[in-house]
Amino acid sequence: MKRDPRTGAPNFYRFARDYLHAYLPTVQGHSPRTIEAYRISLECFIDYLTGIEHIDRAEVSFDHFERQHLKAWLAWMIAQRHYAPATIGLRLSAVKAFLAYCSHEDITLVALSQAAKTLKAPGSPRTPIEYLTQAETRAVLAAFTGTTSKSRRNRMLLILLYDTAVIKQGKEEAVPQAGCRRPGSPAPRLPSGSAAASPAPSAQSPGRDTASPC
Predict the structure, then answer these.
(1) What does the alpha-carbon distance between residue 161 and residue 140 come to, in Å, rounded to a whole number?
(2) How does pLDDT run across 111-145, given as a tens digit for each residue?
(3) How far, in Å, CA of 148 to CA of 158, rounded?
(4) Which of 52, 50, 134, 60 is closest to 98 using CA atoms?
């Protein structure tokens, strides 16, 4: 029986025990380390309730899993604990998974699970892409001297990547992709100091325009 005999409400600790000791290891087949991560996440939320909202540990119930409590918990992890976005996402995902399990076990907990699903953890900051400088591009091209067939092949592949803007240089305008150059704009060039043969022009049918803007 997962309900409190005094109040008839779902008993949080009974659900948590079955979730950690029966459902995750036997039904889901999770490893002990994964189950420990779920347990730590639930403990983190309980520590917030007892330490910040001053709720006695024995009195923690599903009423404290309402959306406003979870939102305050997220704000606490960000502002007070200074957790990384990935850690916050892990903690919140574990609580969401627990509430989803509880909603399948007891229909009266579906609303809690649905409300928790609308919460999102803060996103991780994107790391700026570092581009090659002209000196670095020249150094990469110079590494292939062209004395062997593989060296010439690799050099031409790098030149192709540069000409089609797959390899870009920092603080410079990206080279348009081949076939998409604006009419009247100059052809893309390699960095000074690197030599490469220009590709032969493709045969055109008589009367056809050679420039086709994208």
Answers:
(1) 12
(2) 999 999 999 988 877 777 777 788 887 888 888 88
(3) 16
(4) 60
Residue 143, CB half-sphere, CA atoms under 13 Å: how many?
8
Model-level pTM greater than 0.85?
no
Nearest to 159 by CA among 126, 123, 129, 199: 199
Return the amino acid letter for 26.
T
* Structure-block tokens of residue 32: 């002990």
104 and 29 in a common domain: yes
Structural domain contains residue 59: yes
Rounded to the nearest 5 percent, the helix, strand and coil shares of the chain are 50, 0, 45
Return d(Cα 171, Cα 63) in angstroms, integer: 54
Q: Helix, strand, or coil here: 82?
A: coil
How far, in Å, are 43, 63, 111, 116 from residue 74 at the CA level? Answer: 14, 17, 19, 12
Model pLDDT, residue 166: 60
- Tell me whether residue 34 is in a domain: yes
Which domain covers residue 88, as residue numbers? 12-117
- Could you report the per-residue pLDDT of 32-91, keeping only the tens digit for each? 999 999 999 999 999 999 999 999 999 999 999 999 999 999 999 999 999 999 999 999
